[in-house]
Amino acid sequence: MPALGRHQARAGDAHFGYVLETGEVVMQGQGKALLAAPEIRKAYLGE
After folding, report:
1. Count of domains in the chain?
2. Which structural domain range is residue 22 located in?
């Protein structure tokens, strides 16, 4: 599995996660909700 696929699978399994930008928390929530967020998909998954 490519590295991105492994990260995606882990984030979806996470109960709760944080998204950091330059050391600041910019988003937080359940892993599945974070993966569903359009801004996360665009910035980190290239969609």
Report:
1. 1
2. 3-45
